[in-house]
Amino acid sequence: MSIWFVITKKELLDAIRDRRALMALLLFPALGPFVIYFMFNTIVDIAEEAKDLTLPIVGAQYAPDLVDFLAQSGIKLAPVDATYPTPSNDHVAAPYVYPAHLLANIREKIADRTYDFVLLIPPDFTTRLGKSSSVNIELFHESSRATAQAKMSRVQQTISAWNQETASLRLMARGISPTIARPVSIERVDVASPQARAQRILGMIPFFIIVAAFVCGMGIAVDATAGERERKSLEPLLVNPIQRSSIVVGKWMAAATFSTLGLLLVMILNLFALNLVPLEQLGLSFSINLTEIIGILIITLPLAFFATALQLFVGIFAKSFKDAQAYLSVISMLPMAPLFYNIFNTEDRELWMSLVPMLGQHMLLADVVAGKNPPLFDFAVAALSVVLFSLVFIYGATLVFKRERIIFS
Amino acid sequence: MIEVNSLRKRFKQVHAVDGVSFSARDGAITGLLGHNGAGKSTSLRILYGLLTADSGSAVIDGVDVMREPQWAQENIGVMTDAHGLYPRLTAREHIEYFAKLRKLSTDTIVERTEQLIAQLAMEEIADRRAEGYSQGERMKVCLARSLIHNPQNIIMDEPTNGLDVMTTRSVRTILQQLKTQNKCILLSSHIMQEISALCDEVIVISEGKVLMQGSLDELLARTGESDLEEAFMTMTRASR
After folding, report:
1. CA dihedral B82, B87, B91, B95 (to 10 degrees)
2. How far does A115 lie from chain B, in Å, by closest CA?
3. Which of A217, A276, A389, B177 would bridge with A308, disulfide CB 3.0–4.6 Å?
4. Nearest chain A alpha carbon to B90
5. Does B133 contact A at CB distance below 8 Å?
6. Is B18 helix (H, G, I), strand (E, B) or coil?
7. Is residue A116 within 8 Å of residue A151, measured between CB atoms?
8. pTM (whole model) above 0.80
9. Interchain contact, A235 vs B50, CB within 8 Å
10. Rg of chain B's alpha carbons, rounded to an integer?
11. Is the dihedral of CA A86, A89, A91, A96 positive or negative?
């Protein structure tokens, strides 16, 4: 049995008995899929609810035309029982004043979440319209209720449409073309469709996978370097007739094993979460087949070795767990760099990007998640770069391990 | 057999070891006596290959440690002054880990482990995790794992430091046993009683220099004192 393997086995045994390291391994990979699952469900819910819209309305009987129009647009109406005095016809000049108890009642109903919003129609609606004047209808809502936003804007759009139609009819009745009053008409194209939002969430998956590579092996990497120094077990270990490189490689392989397990777990849990989300309802088809899974694994696997090599190299300089955690928490932020770079940069991929560890992998993963085939050349370049960086870190760690000052302080 | 010739080691401005020479023969317990910071640990660390001397030589059984560090480490058993254990491993796992690092055969590992556990009366802690061991229990594990390969030369840095009377006595018994097996035992201590109770040969070291080497009686005769402590004080005073 090779010496490095003896060390790997010991470090793994040690880590499996370490609740802290196990927690990091198990909890972090579960976090990403959890977030993705909930974000997706929220989007689906919002999209679903806007489609299936019920509008609580007070005084529906006063505006039969508008009510018909709303119903034809697919909005279900829920008349709210409320009686208020009808003004006499000669009061048309002043806007109608609702009784205070009615308004208070509506506010209360919105506050206690019976309704998200309520449409209020005054009794003089038809009278005023008949005189070609303007009517105030009121839409009570609670703007902090995010889930109701989509519904609200649909109600507003429908009422505006009715507004324009009525205005056009009035103009035509006077022999004027409706276009005179509408020099410009705006056609709105909503880019933030549920699909686009869903796509953006799918884009988070590569990020979670890369972070998992860093988080899951960190426990072992810290324990095997700063931990050995802190509990003063390094000197007795080094007294054995073994190469320092065997020690570093043994520890590296143990940490990389945990990191790899973390990657696998993230993958499995993400697939599981995506299976639970009703993607078809958003018109999205996310079918991932075995080749794509293997592809993602091949792309990310070198990162498990890269992340842990970097952590070992940094961990050796730390005298205690506390130091190591301070150093490594900075390093754990690194996977975010490619994400931000990709957010602010939409230009085409260039060679140097593939050479940057993690940025290269991130782009490849984004391709796979988007259903594209990543170019083989870029894959090879990115993998080679990460492997080279890892070896440099491991070589550096071996050199540092030979320093007298590191052993005896 | 351990021989050290004009060893020098400097850390920045401090001469930790400044021309140290001594020897330790087989079948004897040799004690390195000196107060804290006298250069005991530095000398031993050079011997077991974790420090490189600036000049001089350290020879184990005729082989230069600095030329053949691997060979030297194979032929010595070392108990360092750091007694760190892995809190989640049992005593047996600690001993077996070091045995595997030394590439012993599985049969030898099982046999030697059992033997050492019995010898050091560790049956009770053998399969308990190191978390919560007493100082004495920790020392026993350290001792056992440094002796697992049955080395000819044994180097110990302050082996009884901080031990209770019972454990100290059992460590002494083991060292006496090893001596009868014709092993070469070199230990350091700053405790006079320890040295006078255990050692056949004493090396007095102060400020990186060897003041005297000889048997206890020789040291007393040369200084004209009646006990080791007085002899030690006389020597260190004379060197200043």
Report:
1. -60
2. 58
3. A217
4. A14
5. no
6. strand
7. yes
8. no
9. yes
10. 18
11. positive
- Between positions 163 and 222 of B, the ones with CB within 8 A of A are none
| Contact criterion met (CB < 8 Å) for B84 and A6 | no
- CA B69/CA B75 separation, integer angstroms: 10
- Give the pLDDT mean for B140-158: 94
How far the first Cα of chain B sits from its last, in Å, is: 31
Nearest CB to A232 within list B82, B87, B102: B82
Place of tokens 């050091």: B120
**Could you tell me if B68 lies within 8 Å of chain A, comparing CB atoms?**
no
With residue A118 as reference, give the H or E element that holds it.
strand A117-120
3-state SS class at B219: helix
Cβ-defined contact of B88 to A18 (cutoff 8 Å): yes
Contact B70 A241 (CB under 8 A): yes
Q: Are the beta carbons of B59 and B5 closer than 8 angstroms? A: yes
Contact A236 B89 (CB under 8 A): no
In angstroms, the separation between the Cα of residue A151 and the nearest Cα of chain B is 58
User: Is B101:A3 a contact under the CB 8 Å cutoff?
Assistant: yes
The complex's ipTM works out to 0.93
Q: Could you tell me if B85 lies within 8 Å of chain A, comparing CB atoms?
A: yes
Q: Is the pLDDT of residue A299 over 60?
A: yes
Dist CA B16 CA B13 (whole Å): 9
Strand partners, A139: A119
Question: E strands, B43-142, where?
Answer: 55-60, 63-64, 76-79
Asked if A382 and A354 count as a contact pair (C-beta separation under 8 A), the reply is yes
Q: Answer yes or no: do A241 and B78 touch at CB < 8 A.
A: no
Reduced to 3 states (helix: H, G, I; strand: E, B; else coil), residue B181 is coil
DSSP letter for each residue of A31-71 = HHHHHHHHHHHHHHHHHHHHHS-EEEEE-GGG-HHHHHHHH
Half-sphere exposure of A264 (CA within 13 A, CB side): 6
Cα B235 from chain centroid? 23
The model's pLDDT over A373-406, given as tens digits with 9 standing for 90+, comes to 788 888 889 999 999 999 999 999 999 988 888 8
